[in-house]
Amino acid sequence: MKKVIETGVPINILFSSTIGEKVKKGHPGKLHPWWSRSPIVSSAALLKTALDDATQDNEDHQFHYTPFIQSFKDGKAGRYPSSGFPTVCDPFAGFGGLLIAAQRLGLNIFASDLNPVAVVLNQAAIGIPARFADQYAVNPKATTMLYHGSMGLAEDVAYYGKKLAGKVHAKLKERYPSAGLPETKQEFPVFSWVWVRTMPCPNPACGHEMPLASSFILSKSKGREYWAEPDLADRQLSFLIHHGACPTGKESNKHGSRGAKFICPYCGHITQDEDVVRAGKTGCLSSTLMAVSVETEQGRIFISPDDAQIKAARCEMPEDTPTENISHNARWFSPPRFGITEFAELFTPRQMLLLTTFCTELPAIMEEVQQDALAKGMADDGISLAQKGKGALAYSQAIGVYLSLMISKLTDYQSAYCTWDNRKGNIRSVFNRQALPMAWVYGEGNPFSSPIGNLASILKSEVNAIADLQATSHAEVIQSDALDVQFPKNAILFTELPYYDNVGYAELSNYFYVWLKKCLGNIYPDLFHSDLTPKDEICSIPEHFAGNSDDAIKTYQQKIQELFTRFYASASNKFPSIVFFGYREADRQESFDFLLEGILAAGFIITGMWPMRLSRNEDGKSLVRVAVVFRKRIEEGKVTTRRGFINALKHKLPSMLDVAYTTDMLEEDRDIIGQGMGLQVLAEFQTVINADGTDLSLPDALQLIIQEVKEYEKIHPAEMQMGEE
After folding, report:
1. Closest Cα partner for 217 from 203, 209, 207, 229?
2. Tens of pLDDT, residues 472-523
3. CA gap 29, 143 in Å, rounded
4. Which residues contact 153 (CB under 8 A, 6 or more apart)?
5. d(CA 522, CA 397)
6. Do 529 and 540 form a contact (C-beta atoms < 8 A)?
């Protein structure tokens, strides 16, 4: 029987839900950073349309799914019984958003990913909560209340996370001193330290240590404007801090908007890119403390660093640092161009001391968890988390996983590549986008202060996310290449396929991998046995193919097509699968149609395509994200001619589009949906024969479908474009 997704989907409702989904309090995205997350609420609603039978009662899909989305957001959505419904599989699980959606519907799930960081995220979001669902908290201050879902886990992470932070603070307190104001004897906590990179002026007649400041402005916040000015009275570089708006011409010593070109404030010499690159590669790039941001009773102010602040920041780099090499792919990492080649070099010595101390203190906290769990009566079975244990040892390691994610997430805010946001005088996280750029001015936050990005806020956001995980159905999480996965029987694919080389997951995630390995190497030895993440992921990154883009794309497309062939034997006979894929409209034929061909070549039929955009397409250049619906052929199709197929389209497609289309729909969305419905008509035929005896190709079939869709749209034009009043 057809499912709702094969007749009509509430596209506009789902779109509104998607763009309205923010990673805010309680969202699983707060567990840890990841790139290009799949939305959860709209994904759950779409999955529901693949499970529900299509009837006349639910043809009014615009109404039918509005209350579902709201109830899902409220955590009150109905759940499907696991028996009789398929296992939802995602072999590119990534952050785990699609499987979180499936699990909240009560469905059994199977998650896999080649990337160890993604596997840990999925364990934390769906695997561990399912294993310890309704588990009571074990910490000494826990109540005897009945814990629902992941509440016990959340309470223990809050308790032991705070204890871990307290132990680290006690050890490093002298490294984070308060600051005294020059005009008073009062001292106040430091919010952050603002640093600027420096190098010797390449002018032989000068040689001063010059700042490489993309901006001297510290804060533009109204009434609290501050800026720094190089003090030229002394050969040793220091700064004067001014309260008020920065005068024109004093904002920066950067020359031009492109490249690493800076003006020496001492002699006026302009450095060129090659000067800065050479300084970096010869070890002549350094950093100078430019300003200290202080939290006073009247608000945040900026002062010049005194000797105490400078001394506190000067500590030896710990021995146990991550010495693994950063990828030299400039698309993802800019620092290697300037001689910064090891992950340890992405942190100040004080930050490195902080992070390694956390890693060192973590095992003792986990041992404490285990003893407390035993005292609360948890089984002393000695079975580890990796061995699917549920006793005290496994539970202590589970808490260790969440605390490790806290430490790893802290590196997103504790790095010498956290750029300084001078709009309000704040620190940006390292990964504001899918790359790690060079940072000329950066902020070093005080992890023990109160603002966002410190330990307390990171721990709180993680605890809230854990508490909201509604994982009660069975979940299996493994590390595997997608082509090596042994799918369970009666399965459906529900996955976001990698978009060619759109995101360098393997390279980027190494930033977190090196820290998770330090924390979790003993818990998940098979996951963290290598120095860095595997690079044989399915993608078309040219650097993985000796720089050959054509080979990269060809291999990528072949592997994606092979995935469908391998999955076919396990696919459900009753329910359709859904794969999401993104492409640029101008490149559709080369970058998207191969996917449809691979699905058909594996023996499936395509029964729908639905645009599932992640943002408003205001410039026409954004990524087109489409959900392709496909299933096993239930009965053998007929053989027809090209003319017979055209007649079938003319006869059946209009009534299908009457249901699938809504009035407030973008023209490009109507085209995609129309092609999906047309492919469903094509699925009725085993073979379509051209006049010359050859089989009708997919491109030719799509052309015929598009012609009929356009004919329909002439008669039934869209009455209102999405977003118009």
Report:
1. 229
2. 789 999 999 999 999 999 999 999 999 998 899 999 999 999 999 999 999 9
3. 28
4. 128, 129, 132, 135, 137, 398, 399, 402, 466
5. 10
6. no
> Which 8-state DSSP code applies to residue 437?
-
H or E element at residue 123:
none
**Res. 230: pLDDT tops 80:** yes
User: H helices of 376-425, where?
Assistant: 392-410
CA separation for the pair 68, 493 (Å, rounded): 22
Instruction: Tell me the residue type at 168.
Output: V
- Angstrom distance (rounded) from CA 419 to CA 305: 19
Tell me the mean pLDDT in the region 176-200: 90
Count CA atoms within 13 Å of residue 52 on its CB side.
Answer: 24
For 538-563, the pLDDT digits (tens) are 999 998 898 999 999 999 999 999 99
Closest listed residue to residue 616, CA positions, set 670, 666, 582: 666
Q: Are 600 and 688 in contact (CB under 8 A)?
A: no
The amino acid at residue 314 is R
| CA pair distance 541, 533, nearest whole angstrom | 15
The Cβ-side half-sphere exposure at 357, using a 13 Å CA radius, reads 18
Question: Any idea which residue has 């079938």 for tokens?
Answer: 648
Q: What tens digit of pLDDT does each residue of 77-104 get?
A: 778 887 889 999 999 999 999 999 999 9
What is the structure's pLDDT at 92?
97
Cα distance between residue 501 and residue 580, in whole Å: 16
Count of CB atoms situated within 10 Å of the CB of 176: 18
| Sign of the torsion angle spanned by Cα atoms 13, 15, 76, 7 | positive
Give the separation between CA 536 and CA 26, rounded to whole angstroms: 34
Q: How many whole angstroms from its chain centre is CA 234? A: 46
C-alpha 687/C-alpha 127 separation (Å) is: 44
Residue 30 dihedral angles phi and psi, to the nearest 5°: -75, -10
pTM: 0.94
How is the beta sheet containing 604-611 ordered, strand by strand? 475-479, 109-113, 87-90, 491-496, 577-583, 624-632, 604-611
Predicted local distance difference test score (pLDDT) of residue 721: 41
Q: How many CB atoms lie within 10 A of CB 458?
A: 24
Q: What pLDDT sits at residue 23?
A: 82
> Are 36 and 539 contacting, i.e. CB atoms less than 8 angstroms apart?
no
Query: Would the pLDDT of 433 be above 80?
Result: yes
| Helices and strands in the chain, H and E counts | 20, 21
Residue with tokens 């910064």: 340
Contact 350, 315 (CB under 8 A): yes
DSSP labels for 287-323?
EEEEEEEEEETTEEEEE---HHHHHHH--PPPSS---
Environment class of residue 370 by beta-carbon count within 10 Å: exposed (0-12), middle (13-18) or buried (19+)?
buried
**Domains by residue range for the chain, with CATH:** 4-133+471-634 (3.40.50.150)
* Pairing of β 685-689 and β 638-641: parallel
